[in-house]
Each structure stands twice: as C-alpha cells, then as structure tokens.
Amino acid sequence: MDIRAAQAGQAYSAAKPALAAATGQSKNPVADAATKFASVLQNAEATAKGSALESADPHALVMALSQTELAVETAATLRDRVVEAYQEILRMPV
User: Fold this and answer.
1) What is the rounded CA–CA span in Å between residue 40 and residue 80?
2) Ribosomal protein among the record's keywords (predicted)?
3) CA 1 to CA 52: how far, in whole Å?
4) Short-list 36, 8, 32, 5, CA closest to 20
5) How far apart are CA 33 and CA 58, in angstroms?
6) pLDDT grade for 88, boundaries at 50, 70 and 90
7) Which one of 3, 39, 56, 71 has the minimum C-beta count within 10 Å?
8) pLDDT confidence of residue 69
9) Cα separation, 62 vs 58, whole angstroms
10) Using an 8 Å Cβ cutoff, are 43 and 67 in contact?
11) Is the pLDDT at 84 greater than 90, yes or no?
C-alpha cells in the first residue's frame, strides 16, 4: 500500500463525520429511515383525522395516503431483500 493512499484513507476517515454533519446525515441511516417512515405515517393519520372532521383538504388526504403507500411498499421491499440476503447467506457452504 502506498503511503499516500494510507494518508488519504486516514484523512477521509477523519473528515467523514464532518461531511455527514454538513450534509445532514447521521451515523445511523437505518434509524433515520425508521424515523422518516414513522413521520410519514403520523402525517397521514393526522391528515385523515382532519379530513374526517372536515377541516383538511381532500387533496391533502390523497397526497398523504399516496406517500404512505409508497413508504409501506418501500419498507416491504427492503424487508424482502434483507430476508433474501439472509437466506442466501444460509445457503453458503461453510
């Protein structure tokens, strides 16, 4: 390994937390995704309650429901891929 490559790797590792803070990324993207998923569901629920009480726009309800549908489909796809990867690991010979 070249010394310059090692120094570049160390510099990158040192700068990575600063870059994550500057771009708004945290250290745990899974927790961020779960938080965003929960907020989408809460938003849809609040909009549905408002629509039931006739205080919300029906267009906002449709938008919230479509966002919720997309979030649930994404979570299901992610779950399926994780299960698929786990099964593939189990099939590997030891």
Assistant:
1) 21
2) no
3) 65
4) 32
5) 27
6) very high
7) 3
8) 94
9) 6
10) yes
11) yes
Give the position of tokens 């250290």: 27
How long a stretch of residues is the chain? 94
| pLDDT tens-digit series, residues 54-77 | 776 888 888 989 999 999 999 999
For residues 47 and 56, the answer to whether their CB atoms sit within 8 Å is yes
Q: Are 27 and 57 in contact (CB under 8 A)?
A: no
Across the chain, mean pLDDT equals 82
DSSP for the chain, written as a single string: --HHHHHHHHHHHHHHHHHHHHHT--S-HHHHHHHHHHHHHHHHHHHHHHHHTT-S-HHHHHHHHHHHHHHHHHHHHHHHHHHHHHHHHHHS--
Residue labelled with tokens 């299901």: 76
